[in-house]
Write a structure and sequence with these properties.
Elements (H helix, E strand, L loop, with lengths): L2 E7 L15 H15 L5 H6 L3 E11 L8 E11 L3 E10 L2 E13 L10 H5 L3
Antiparallel strand pairs: 1-3, 2-5, 3-4, 4-5
């Protein structure tokens, strides 16, 4: 299983009037986790797109357990849990000071420039280029 970990500091602009990380910003963080995981293997989303592979989000589930606040330093773990010929499933865990704040799962599908499903490149299925 491929996995990665990044840290993110909650910015003031990402919080609501209560000083809590707004729930929608978790989606941005999860995308950042996926992007950095791909980058850790020597590729970027731009590289994939330039080769004609587009990854679109088809499913997202989030369970919020505890709030994050302005200036918290979060640890985001991103794990590839499954790949198929056209799909990648991820799991996410968000921690602050060792406490699990949120967990999530997503599914990405690989499509071509017309939006039709296409096979993932081998290096995404096998975890190598």
């Amino acid at each position: 299983m491929t996995s990665g970990e990044i840290t993110i500091r909650v910015r003031y602009a990402e919080t609501d009037r209560m000083g809590l990380l707004h729930h929608a910003n978790y989606l941005i963080y999860f995308e950042q986790g996926r992007t950095e995981l791909l980058r850790s293997h020597g590729l970027s989303y731009k590289d994939l797109e330039d080769k004609g592979y587009l990854l679109v989000l088809t499913k997202m589930e989030i369970k919020y357990r505890w709030p994050a606040r302005y200036d918290d330093v979060l640890t985001l773990k991103t794990i590839v849990t499954r790949t198929t010929s056209v799909r990648i499933d991820h799991r996410y865990e968000v921690y602050c000071d060792g406490r699990l704040l949120a967990e999530a799962a997503s599914t990405l599908a690989c499509v071509d420039r017309t939006g039709r499903p296409q096979a993932l490149p081998d290096f995404l299925r096998d975890g190598k280029e």
